[in-house]
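Your task
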Amino acid sequence: MTDKNTLLEERKQRLSLTLLFSGLVFVFLLGTMLLVSLIVYLLVRAGVLQMVEGSMRPGSFIVLIVLASILIGTVLSMTVGRFPLRSVNYVINTMNRLAAGDFRTRLEFTGPFRNLPVIRELTESFNKMASELESTEMLRSDFINNFSHEFKTPIVSIAGFAKLLKKGNLSPAEQAEYLNIIEDESLRLSAMATNVLNLTRVENQTILTDVAEYNLSEQLRNCVLLLENKWSAKNLEMNLDFDEHTICANEELMKQVWVNLLDNAVKFTPEGGSVNLKISGNGSGTLVQISNTGSEIRSDRLDRIFQKFYQADESHASEGNGIGLAIVQKVIALHGGTVSVGSRDGCTEFTVTLPGRAVGEPA
């Protein structure tokens, strides 16, 4: 019902704009006729046009009316037409500045028409678009700087330890340690590159393929085991509260969702904290909740947390490049589901809702 009311309101605003321009054209034509009539009247009073038996001479009358109409119409068109065209030119120039990369440009109309609903809507829509583009550009630049730094760090580390190994004169223990560091840094590079490639792939994907029924509970357990080194190093408690559940989805894409959410939870949970996983189901779909203890996310950042390149940790003290949650949102949207986040009372919880068959039965 709300969408219908909004559509009706938009149609009314478009109609008001049409009536406004129609009225301007009518006033323009009426003004031209009045001016021509006034000039003819003045010419008659001045004796330039002579009346013969109650009528003007046809030849001079027609010529003068045509010439006067053309002349006055041209002058009025050039004069009056400058006012609406000035606004059109202003919009075009502002759009060109935005297209050229000036994302700080904004529309600001002046004059009596600025309070018209359709003008206000144009201004608000354009300025919102410019603001979003400016925000995205800032995040993109920030991402490039951070990603370049994070990409360079493991490369320098790998090169440094490789040089030490090349020189020799190292004990077996030192060799093993340096090789482990090189392996870890290589895996870190691979993970960053994979995340960027995954984001590009899911962003370009509009149709969900390879959908099959599989055991969701088993997949989550495998993802927890996959990240065992990370959560065991921080002595975290992993609480899995679910039975066997099955869903119909793209198994590979959903694995990216759970790995990203779990990795995010482990990353921001302080040492000795806990990460909790819960699955519940009803007749309309499946609900997966992944929560962790630790510092809360500020409310003004919750709305932006799924934006590409955005990092809630603005200090960049923790590893990450602002891509993981963007992948999560896109994959869940492809499945027709939703993902949300809440953060309060020292706990942050991500909730994934997937539509489909009733779940909760043994797989």
Observations:
- The two ends are 40 Å apart (CA to CA).
- The CA atoms of residues 223 and 259 lie 6 Å apart.
